[in-house]
Specification:
about 60 residues; elongated
Amino acid sequence: MSTAAEISSLTSSLAELHDRVTAMAESALAGGDEETAHELIAVERSLGGALRRLRRFSPAGGR
């Protein structure tokens, strides 16, 4: 697999993971579990930063 294809694949996978963590954080907030929500939001931010960096190198811009 070429580097560009690998980056594109990683970007897609990371975007899906980011979306899943976002949904979990929103669910935790809605359920009143603020401690879990805050931790998930921190993870979401980290994943978002990594995703932005990968998208800079992805030929298709991620998704």
